[in-house]
Amino acid sequence: RSTPELNIGKKLNEGKTKQIFEIVDQPGLVLVQSKDQITAWNAVRKDQMEGKAAMANRTTSCVFQLLQESGIKTAFVKQHSDTAFIAAHCEMIPIEWVCRRVATGSFLKRNPGVKEGFRFSPLKMEMFFKDDANNDPQWSEEQLLEAKFCLAGLPIGRCEMDIMNRSTVAIFEILERAWATQDCTLVDMKIEFGVNVKTQEIVLADVIDNDSWRLWPSGDRSQQKDKQVYRDLKEVTPEAMQVVKRNFEWVAERVKMLLEPQVSGRVVVLMGSTSDVAHCEKIKKACVSYGISCTLRVTSAHKGPDETLRIKAEYEGDGVPTVFVAVAGRSNGLGPVMSGNSAYPVINCPPLTPDWGAQDVWSSLRMPSGLGCSTILSPEAAAQFAAQIFGLTNHLVWSKLRASMLNTWVSLKQADQKLQACSL
Ligand SMILES: Nc1ncnc2c1ncn2[C@@H]1O[C@H](COP(=O)(O)OP(=O)(O)OP(=O)(O)O)[C@@H](O)[C@H]1O
Ligand SMILES: *[C@@H]1O[C@H](CO)[C@@H](O)[C@H](O)[C@H]1NC(C)=O
Ligand SMILES: *[C@@H]1O[C@H](CO)[C@@H](O)[C@H](O)[C@H]1NC(C)=O
Ligand SMILES: *[C@@H]1O[C@H](CO)[C@@H](O)[C@H](O)[C@H]1NC(C)=O
Ligand SMILES: [Mg+2]
Predict the structure, then answer these.
(1) CA dist list (Å): 422 to 37, 157, 200, 417, 418
(2) What is the pLDDT of residue 42?
(3) Where is the PurE domain (predicted)?
(4) This model's pTM is above 0.85
């Protein structure tokens, strides 16, 4: 099983669906190898399904790539082969986090009276202790706290629990938006976290594949494309297994498209003079971090309005969704002229100076009637606002914004915890 470039060491773990190998010379990393086998009801029904590992691989690697590129911390490092990937070595937290948008399955049994299809908003979170012998019992927050887990040296307390809870919600929302681009409803999802043995960070680990979620194309349960199809089989016939396999292929095929932007837009920064180029470069850098292309142009609405309008027409003419950012010091004529002559959004981002800034800013704030341009002083924040506009239609941009919000929340939580520990 080992491949030329990787020196596979000893097997660290083996479960029903995968094996975990040490990688010699690369401490802190492991190889996660899928097995050609599909399980349900804890392996009561077990069938080898040719090609399943390969499809699992593709699903997991696309999903983890999507999350990773969005800024979610995961154990995934890179794809290694058709059936294996390299991941950070984690000590796994033995909890399954379940997140639901639509009530179905075991939720209905545990909550009699709730009809299938009930929509949770906000999302419904549940956790289950991973304990095969007791059929993975549902746990409360208190049970997790009292279990006093400690993994890779990290005690799992309230802070860690809240981080996992919040992360699960963000991960669900990112995958939900991604699947929506394929006209598919993400009904529910289960994930696991581990503690990276090297960094002691809590990261999304294990895998996300067909077994991890319910997907209903067009929100229609009868077209479900997930493992439920397999669980529902009355009898495992070769024909029935073909249907399951086709469904797996459907998902593995679609999952690649989750990484494609539906619509790509661009930001065009117009500056009144090259003296503002450093300010504009900051806008560009931030745009690129959201995966949005950004062009810088020089034009003055006061000194060359014909040229300003010509440049405007250039970008209006090719059908690419565009946000204009106007960078003009002193009197900002640029933003208002653009805003009064284009249906595209315009953001004023004037580079204010300490001496006149308080006066100059009014040229960006006080508009003639009929103009809807916004004004954002920080160049990074102007780019963020442009990203929020594109995020309405581009799920990849939206996911970066969503993950960044999560990461900020986690940093604050951790900073608070650290300060509390110091003052004890
Ligand atoms: N990055 C990782 N580092 C270390 N262990 C991992 C990593 N990813 C997954 N594992 C662990 O590898 C083991 C084998 O996975 P598998 O999913 O086959 O187990 P399983 O039979 O489903 O049992 P479990 O109920 O623990 O999931 C699991 O215990 C899983 O938590
Ligand atoms: C496994 O995943 C990688 C990365 O997505 C992909 O290049 C490779 O083709 C996949 N293998 C199979 C058999 O799908
Ligand atoms: C997750 O957090 C929410 C909001 O704080 C809380 O209501 C919920 O009980 C938590 N869920 C779990 C399973 O811990
Ligand atoms: C992906 O979804 C299909 C559809 O049911 C499923 O058959 C397949 O097993 C899933 N992939 C994996 C690896 O579980
Ligand atoms: Mg498992």
Answers:
(1) 49, 17, 19, 9, 6
(2) 43
(3) 265-412
(4) yes
Give 235 Cα–ligand 4 centroid separation in angstroms: 18
Decide if 20 contacts 35 (C-beta within 8 A): no
Whether 137 is in the pocket of ligand 1, judged by its Cβ within 6 Å, is no
Block residue for tokens 């979170």: 125
Query: Is the CB of 169 inside a 6 Å radius of any atom of ligand 3?
Result: no
What is the percent of the chain where pLDDT is above 70?
93
Distance CA 349, CA 421 (A): 41
| Percent of residues, the chain, with pLDDT higher than 90 | 76
Domains of the chain from N-terminus onward: 1-262+394-424 (3.30.470.20), 266-393 (3.40.50.1970)
d(CA 167, CA 194): 13
- Please tell me the distance from the alpha carbon of residue 236 to that of residue 45, in angstroms, as a whole number: 9
Give exposure, 51-88, as e/b (b: 16+ Cβ within 10 Å).
Answer: ebbbbbbbbbbbbbbbbbebbbbbbbbebbeebbbbbb
Does the pLDDT value for residue 228 go beyond 80? Answer: no
User: Strand, coil or helix: what is 96?
Assistant: strand
In this prediction, residue 217 carries a pLDDT of: 87
What distances in angstroms separate CA 20 from CA 86, 91, 112, 149, 264, one per listed residue?
10, 12, 39, 22, 39
105-135 as b/e: b if 16+ CB within 10 A: bebeeeeeeeeeebeeeeebbbbbeeeeeee
Residue nearest to atom 2 of ligand 4 (CA): 248
Rg from Cα positions in the chain: 26
Q: What is the pLDDT of residues 151-193, one digit of tens each?
A: 999 999 999 999 999 999 999 999 999 999 999 999 999 999 9
Looking at all shown ligands, the one closest to residue 136's CA atom is 1
Q: Could you tell me the two tokens for 85?
A: 């990937």
CA of 64 to the centre of ligand 2 (A): 13
For ligand 1, what atom is nearest to the CA of residue 88?
1
Query: Atom 8 in ligand 1: which residue has the minimum CA distance?
Result: 206
